[in-house]
UniProtKB/TrEMBL annotation:
InterPro entries: ADH-like_C, ADH-like_N, ADH_Zn_CS, GroES-like_sf, NAD(P)-bd_dom_sf, Zn_alcohol_dh. Transmembrane segments: none annotated. Residues 23-132 form the Alcohol dehydrogenase-like N-terminal domain. Keywords: Metal-binding, Oxidoreductase, Zinc. The keyword Zinc applies. It comes from Truepera radiovictrix (strain DSM 17093 / CIP 108686 / LMG 22925 / RQ-24). This is Alcohol dehydrogenase GroES domain protein. Its cofactor is Zn(2+). Belongs to the zinc-containing alcohol dehydrogenase family. CDD domains: threonine_DH_like. One of its GO terms (molecular function) is oxidoreductase activity. PROSITE patterns: ADH_ZINC.
Length: 339
């Protein structure tokens, strides 16, 4: 079968590999759509510590059940599905505390084991979810949305909260929609690209600002004492550093964007102490696929507007280039079965 495999940082090949064999409790999925995530770009550049090379990338995907193991009871061949790529051991101390995303033995499709930039991918039955009538392109965005849902659980957004989000890319747009449905009174979006801010307004943003237009005077007019929640969806250290200045006393900084492993951000500990600030990280997801699926099926979240490019998998390098550098990109996906 065809697969896009990263042999080592900045070394990749689209090649024929052996179809994965499935165990008695596993499901073989014929991949239809698979999205490029910022994590994939970090793995490509060698700046994601969890990655194991060589690896077939791809952890945001959807497809059709092609085969099931002999002990699988919940799925049948032909069913339309997606899967949680995070595969915990269920036995370490963090799994026992239901912190599955912090599992000491965590395996991740597309990071530590073969992912979905391939014709087929194998996943445990416990990680597979039906997608109903969602398009395959939309269903490949359920994993990013599940990450947002997990972050919301961590942040514990309160009804009536005001929020500032840096980054109106795919994750920022999904975050914005989710926090509005969770009860935020207002959501202000900041980005460098005017067309992204226009999309944010179309999907419900209260106000939008170009990155260089968010001056102290503007912020004071919007939120005289600061925002209840400030979220970074860029992964840019400088943005995270500046985010502290926009928080009200008792406010929450949501660190959501993925920085390089070695990135460092200076901050004033006294300010965190004096203002009762909360710094909240949210890594990946933690059994939040059902909530994500329910949000989409219930009409609360629109996924299709977030997809900008769909390329055949054989154009893997072009897809990476678009995802990293094209100013007109949002979510870039591969149609795996396209020629």
């Amino acid at each position: 079968m065809i697969a896009a495999q990263v042999q080592a940082p900045l070394e990749a090949e689209v090649l024929e590999v052996q179809e994965p064999e499935i165990g008695p409790h596993e499901v073989l999925i014929e991949v239809k759509n698979a999205g490029i995530c910022g994590t994939d770009l970090h793995i490509w550049h060698g700046s994601y510590a969890l990655a194991k090379y060589p690896v077939v990338l791809g952890h945001e995907f959807s497809g059709v059940v092609a085969a099931v193991g002999r002990e699988v009871k919940g799925f049948q061949v032909g069913e339309r599905v997606t899967a949680d790529p995070n595969l915990p051991c269920y036995s370490c101390i963090f799994c026992q505390r239901r912190q599955f995303n912090q599992c000491l033995n965590l395996e991740v499709l597309g990071v530590t084991r073969q992912g979905a930039f391939s014709r087929y991918v194998a996943a445990p039955e416990s990680a597979v979810y039906p997608i109903g009538d969602l398009s395959f392109a939309e269903a490949a965005l359920l994993e990013p949305l599940a990450c947002v849902v997990w972050g919301l659980k961590q942040v514990q957004l309160q009804a009536g909260d005001t929020m500032l989000i840096f980054g109106a890319g795919p994750m920022g747009i999904l975050m914005m929609q989710a926090v509005l449905r969770a009860g935020a009174a207002s959501v202000v979006m900041v980005d460098k690209e005017a067309w992204r801010l226009n999309l944010a307004r179309q999907l419900g943003a209260t106000m939008t600002f170009a990155a260089d237009a968010l001056t102290p005077d503007v912020v004071h007019d919007l939120a005289p004492y600061g925002f209840d929640v400030v979220a970074d969806a860029t992964g840019v250290p400088k943005v995270i550093e500046q985010a502290f200045t926009y928080l009200r006393p008792g406010g929450k900084l949501w660190v959501f964007g993925v920085t390089s492993e070695g990135a460092r951000v200076p901050f004033a500990p006294y300010e965190v102490f004096r203002k009762d600030l909360h710094i909240i990280g949210s890594f990946a997801l933690n059994k939040t696929f059902y909530e994500a699926i329910n949000l989409v099926h219930g009409g609360a979240i629109k996924l299709a507007p977030v997809i900008s490019h769909i390329l055949p998998l054989r154009e893997f390098w072009q897809g990476l280039k678009v995802a990293e550098h094209d100013p007109a990109r949002m979510k870039v996906q591969f149609a795996v079965d396209a020629t």
